[in-house]
Amino acid sequence: MLAVHFGAGNIGRGFIGSLLSQSGYEVVFVDINDEVVRLLKEKQEYRVIIADENRQEQLIRNVSAVNSQTEREKVIDYITKAHLITTAVGPHILPAISAILAEGLQKRATINKTPLHIIACENMIGGSDVLKSHVFAKISEADKPLFETYYGFLNCAVDRIVPNQKHDDPLSVMVEPFFEWVIEKRNIIGDIPPIQGAHFVDDLKPYIERKLFTVNTGHAIASYLGYYKKLQTIQEAMNDEEIRSDVEKALHESGAVLVKKYGWNENEHQSYIQKIIQRFMNPSISDEIVRVARSPIRKLGANDRLVGPAVQYYDLFGQVPLGLVKGIAALLLFDYENDEEAVALQKTIQETGVEGALYQYSQLEKDHPLVIAIKDQWQHLK
């Protein structure tokens, strides 16, 4: 079996690529990093280090790579032969890979009429739907029925902490022991693709929101409160009793939303929250606060990890969620000068105030009780 995976970065190698290799696929990474592509071609293997007290290592074999800029025809040829296509390139790169993917799928349709699943493993909601929309924008109307017949774009939720890191061997990558890869069955064509460790479900939304409103929410709040206290790593932040308490408070609020919406067992979800807290405190992983906190404007989105659960909590319970509010207020103070979004956010706040920023980025009306509470907390922290 052949899997073509776009993105040979740490998540691509340490999470998706390693699981595909362990599932029996030959994995061909597609990337533009010359050194990584060259080394994958030469070695055809790499190490994945599990970040726990034992530091267990996995040797991932049967891998190779191609450069999508200099070896375009090879990429297209692999697409025509693939049994599975996955991505881990970052949401903003999906439009960039859609052209070569569309071209490869068009050629495949003329010579290999077998079903193919494409899974965008990105930290976003509906990543595969987004990728599909970009691909379909590059094909003719006549080709679309053929694509619908043979190509299933499967949405998924992925969860594994892979921090920034450097090793003597550039291909080695360290990952946390925990991982979750949940794939929605809705667009499957034919058989479910064999993927070791993946969990296929009928409805992805509850799992997407559980991850977004727990892992991403907690990570973000720890990073912004940690930055506010001038700490360097998520682990330092989570070892601060006040920050850890604030994170837990926010996750109980977002958890109340999830339990109410999806009818989950409250005790089981509280256990899930505690598992997430322990992951953030893993002493074997050093995750930089400024890495986790980057892109604050995106994280202020109306349906994203902070404002999303805060609005739903207010709508469901008629109360202001003070833990989430404090996290949002801390985000509004994130002024890291090497992050373009942080700089732009501070400029917006200077020009339009907190109310203007929340209206522009979060679609919150200026008289919404959340806006009033966030501004009060922002002034208190400031």
TrEMBL record:
Its recorded name reads Mannitol-1-phosphate 5-dehydrogenase
Q: Which residues form the Mannitol dehydrogenase C-terminal domain?
A: 203-381
**Enzyme Commission number(s):** 1.1.1.17
Q: Which gene encodes it?
A: mtlD
Please report the stretch or stretches of sequence annotated as the Mannitol dehydrogenase N-terminal domain: 2-195
Record-stated family:
Belongs to the mannitol dehydrogenase family.
**Which InterPro entries has this protein been placed in?**
6-PGluconate_DH-like_C_sf (IPR008927), 6PGD_dom2 (IPR013328), Mannitol_1_phos_5_DH (IPR023028), Mannitol_DH (IPR000669), Mannitol_DH_C (IPR013118), Mannitol_DH_CS (IPR023027), Mannitol_DH_N (IPR013131), NAD(P)-bd_dom_sf (IPR036291)
Source domain of life is Bacteria
Keyword vocabulary terms for this entry: NAD, Oxidoreductase
